[in-house]
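Lay summary. Proteins are chains of building blocks that fold into shapes, and those shapes determine what they do. In this project we predict the shape from the chain. Here is one chain we studied, written as its sequence of building blocks.
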Amino acid sequence: MYVYKCIVALFLFTTVAILAEKVEIVSDAMNAQNVKKRVNFIGHVKIKQVDSWLHADKVIVYFNENNETKKYEAIGSVKFEIKKEKNHYKGKGDKVIYYPNKSEYILIGHAVIDDQLNKRHVAGAKIVFDMVTGNANVKGTKSVRGKVKPVVFVFDDGKDK
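And here is the predicted shape, written in a compact code that computers can read:
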């Protein structure tokens, strides 16, 4: 029965990937939960889609009622690189949630995004980033004593030296 569920989950995942851009996921183990419409990839997870990639300790892929990917949740030592037509970002965090329908990324814990094209760097406790608009909301971290550690934003002012 377990093998059947894995095959069904892979079929659903593959069908969705064919309709969009091809997504390849490699991991040490996989656990499909057909009733919950999710697939858990555990251990040294590597996701590749065209020129973009993500690495994490664990990734959960959630599907909607039409078996379309609705959310990716990457947990543990998450690192990624996103290359689109006019965008190129590198980043990392303790946890990254991606909503493909909205092109929205939420980075939680030691969150960092580096804009490779515009030479910008932002870091904080939590970053909500919209790939469509380029808008980002960043929050600092509260320390044990209640003080907020600042958000860090570094950019090139464009002036030649």
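What the prediction tells us: The chain has one domain: 2-155.
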